[in-house]
Design brief:
3 helices; 12 strands; about 180 residues; about 20% helix; 8-stranded antiparallel beta sheet; two-stranded parallel ribbon; OB fold (Dihydrolipoamide Acetyltransferase, E2P); alpha+beta
């Protein structure tokens, strides 16, 4: 029985950490999102939903680009720690404390709000040397596949001014 339990746990751990995501274009993320918001994020708690732990984050919304307006949104990411048990998943973004971010969100049938494409749907907000607001996302090296071919795909990241971002979201939201 113990050997069986260890085999099951090893298989589960492998399944949980081996995340593969379809590479999404900016326009695809806009089209698939139910909400796109800018805000600050704080971890509120970790809860178990079925076999998976989800870290719940409270997003204080400062700007709304698409979907229903809200001042606070509960966003979940797979993984977290409950007691002495921890689950981790590759591709899940890490949020530095009190960071200004733009999030591409979608709501599941269970009513949970997720980030589109995990790290693909998170843009950091900063200012360039001229004081212009920039929305950017670092490149993603692992776990992306081309949706048409199923082959491994590379991602070079993105960098847009706030005006470019808003224009592209408005253009993609009407498609």
């Amino acid at each position: 029985m113990t050997k069986f339990l260890l085999t099951v746990l090893a298989a589960l751990a492998t399944t949980l950490t081996g995340t593969t995501l379809e590479k999404l274009t900016f326009d695809e993320m806009v089209g698939k999102s139910t909400q796109i918001v800018r805000g600050r994020i704080a971890l509120s708690n970790v809860q178990q939903h079925g076999a998976i732990y989800y870290s719940h984050y409270s997003v204080q919304v400062s700007e709304h680009y698409k979907g229903p307006a809200a001042k606070v949104i509960d966003v979940v990411l797979p993984g977290g720690t409950i007691g002495r048990s921890q689950q981790t998943f590759s591709g899940v973004p890490v949020f530095p404390a009190d960071t200004d971010l733009v999030l591409f969100l979608w709501k599941s049938k269970a009513g949970l709000t997720h980030i589109i494409g995990l790290s693909q749907g998170v843009f950091q907000v900063s200012k360039d040397s001229a004081g212009q607001t920039i929305f950017s996302r670092d490149s993603i090296r692992d776990g992306l596949v081309d949706g048409k071919t199923g082959r491994s795909a590379a991602d070079g990241g993105m960098r847009l001014t706030a005006a470019e971002f808003s224009s592209r979201v408005r253009g993609g939201a009407t498609k």
